Protein: Alpha-catulin-like isoform X2
Amino acid sequence: MELTLIAACQTLDQLKKQLQVAAVAGAMRLLSSRPGERALARLPEEAATGHVGGVSELAASLCERQEALSEVCRLLRHVAETEPLGIRCSHLDDCIQSTVQQILSASQVLVQNPESRAALELLEVCRQAWAECLAALTVLVRDTVDASHEKGSSQSLHRHGDEAEVARLAGGVRERTSELEAEVERWPGGGGGEEEEEDAAVLLCVQNVCNAAYAACLLAKGGGGGGGLHKCTPDLLKKAAVLADECVKLSSLLENILARGKGRARLGAGVEQARLCVEQARLCLTAVRDASAVPVQEATAKVADVMQAAEDLLATLLPTVQIARTLKEKMGA
Structure:
């Protein structure tokens, strides 16, 4: 349950970051293109000449611009890192909408009274308010980016040096593990007898690999309680050793499956892939043993090597599982 909650929180964080990137990119794209501003620049002239059709066309263009900017403000509010930023986004959205309504009203007054100097001055005031809204949006985008960077820097203060690197690698291990789980969910069943026992052994090994990988990631990201990575190192290395041991077993099982189908649809190449996976698992075990053989203070510095070896191992294991699954599907067809 705890691992599921952590994975869900991490997924939400990633989605928020993607939404933040999209919001900032959309805002910058809108600020760099000026169709609404060009329409606004022509509006006084069209209104002063009493050109109703031209005013209506320019008003429609300005309304489209306002809708796009309001959407950006709403996106920025959703990804705001602080409450004040969120309030500013909502306030700016309201200002943009009210300013456009004032511009439309002023232009209608001017088109009906082309000689009215007061109406023309009112429209100019509204145009200035629009320019101020765009300037405020530029500042808001910059502050949103700065707040995101400050949050990242603040979080990194709690993990320095090796801890930051281990946390980064743990993310890669978690991603590879998720891919492995998704692949095994498609593993074909049936067959009976020895084949059924082999399938059960494969699924059990994968489950053990994933459990060990998720536990190692949790420890690497400080899930072991106070004391940081230094305190978690012994337990993390134990989980990494379990991961590597189970990968050796799994690779051997996959090697047997692939050997039976050697020569079928070029899948025999998967045997070499499985052997490579075994070698990667042994390298991971070597990295674990090297880290375990030194005092904890020194082992902490080696945890990054262990996590890198684990990520490489899982990256090698995934295509091996894919090839073996494809072969079993063909053999069962």
Observations:
- The chain has two domains: 2-155, 161-332.
- The chain is about 85% helix and 0% strand.
- Residues 117-156 form the longest helix (40 residues).
